[in-house]
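P.,

For your records, the input lines for the assembly:
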Amino acid sequence: MEEDIKNKLSRKNFLKLAGTACAATLASGLLDSKIGVAKEDGPMQEVEADLSKLPPELIKKNELLRMQQDLLNALKKERKERKWSMVLDLRKCIGCSACTLGCKAENVLPPGVVYRPVIDEEIGTYPNVTRRFTPRPCLQCDNPPCVPVCPVKATYKREDGIVVVDYYKCIGCRYCIVACPYNARSADFGELYTKDTPQLEAYESRPTYEYHKIWPRKKGKSPIGNARKCHFCIHRIERGLLPSCVTTCIGEATYFGDMNDPQALVTELIGSSNVIQLKKELGTNPKVYYLL
Amino acid sequence: MRLEKLFWFLSILGLTLCTPSLFVRLSEGLNPTHLGSYVTWGLWEAGYIYFVGLSAGAFLLSTLIYVFGVKKLKPIGKLSLLTALVTLLAAMLSIWVSLGHMERFPKLIFSTSFTSLMGWMVWFYTAYFILLLLELWFALRIDLVELSSQAGFRARLAKVLTFGKISTDLSSAARDERYLKILGSIGVPLAIAFHGGVGALFAVVGARPYWNTSLFPIIFLVGALLSGGAMLTFLSYLTLPQDNTREEIISFLGKIVFTFLIIDVILELTEFLVNFYAGIPAHVYGMKQVLFGKFWWVFFVVHLGLGVILPIFLFSRTKKSSRVIAIVSVLIALTFFAVRLNIVIPGLLMPQLEGLDRAFQEPRLVFHYFPTITEWLVQIWIAALAIFCFLIGFRLFPIMKRGV
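Structure tokens returned:
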């Protein structure tokens, strides 16, 4: 029994380590090539996670591993057969904002750009008081109001459900930002964390790896001047890694998967009786569901 | 032209003093603004809708002459077209500097999305710009021919611009008028489409109840006729020679401006009263900011006081000199910028989800906004350029010649 737990821990750690190591290797390889990696509809990246050596009961029991398996299953399908969605269990969210910062770190977001803030509400009056925390990523609406308003077709909903921004096309008019009923989009104003300080830190010019490409941070170059938003970590999920906010959530409140898969964990949860969508009356039909 | 020296001085002063800010904008992008990810539209977007309203209004009044045959207004036909042209230029510059990637503007033409009203606007403005140039040419042609027989640079330029069409007989004049009528007739639905379209650009955003009303496109059109008409009235007063014709024209224009002022007030009142009665928080938040927020004086003093109450008071006096009408008109035309600011910004002040303002604290993730010095100076530069271009056009071409 103790041996099992020790093995389980070390396997989990190994998986995380292997994943990170592979990502780092891939990243350094990319840096050498100096250009973007594959195109959006290019061949799939080599999947980095491998659960084949773990006992299936463990995968079924552990939600993170189950989502990992769901992800690998989804990647076996064609992109157009997947339908990415997220479920946020507000009963479990503790408002730590690790997801906010994990996302910031993963996507190298500058000041002024946040993909997933966590709203903190106090409900009731003492002694009958509680606090509710609501993480708000891009809700990847099925009927997105931000898409038709783009004058240059720079933002669109992909076949797998993710609403993306083409950093090459976006002219930065910010009409999409204005049109979002959830304030989910940000504008990149070229801000720096260490501006007006004695030293501009090295991390300020780190590139972001969104949309399978390398985007160094240079004045006047995209994504500076563009609209930016949560994209469910496309650069991770298409390599078999769960989105950053999912893996870093310490309350285990963030679920992700392919809702076209009847066996997936998200599909089960979306069928709960306590599931809601934000601002449902607007008809946006978001693909991020909340469990109250 | 009266006050011409003042306008030359102001425009050249504006252009020279504000050019450094333009360079700051071009080199630093949108960073020198106070725009953020939440209040993401501001002064320059308000400038765009302000100038495009002036343009549409001035143009629609020109159609009174060239389409609807109001002969009385003939002397200011070319003036109204020139006004429409330079304010369109200012509008285009305002929206251009507001883009995160100014250099990608060709995509608006070459990869237009026609589900987007902004996409439509670009095509409408291009067509409208060409239409204005053509109309101005037809309206000026015979005057240019007459001018070209004189000596000097103006005469030589006039000769070139006739493009060889130098006949001045009655049949060619009639042909000019026919073309003007055709162009003007195309221009009427075009102007309604593009300025109603700008209103619709805001109105169709379901996420912003402050904008999402059916009245919005109408309010924009009425606002254009009001502000553009007022601007034209003022410019007519300055440019027309002092005689009975001027008195007649100014009096007529004054009545038009007054009528649109009343209609505009009724529409604004409707918006406020209907929304406040229902009291739905998302619908009244913006209005509450306008009336009771930090910038309440922009509405009460600038718009209501100087732009509505004082004009109505002065208009209602039995003896209205042209000068009074001109003063009232310039008040309305200038204070209308406050109305445009109060359209754009309050729509963005309310968090879409309660608590979002406190969810993540960072610069540019705030729900308040005031333009930076750079933003103001760039806007002033654009206005100065419009005045400068107007003066150049006025000096180079026989705008006030009562030819055609």
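Two observations worth noting. The helical segments of chain A are 2-33, 56-61, 63-76, 98-106, 175-179, 234-237, 244-248, 265-270. DSSP finds eight helices and ten strands in chain A.

Regards
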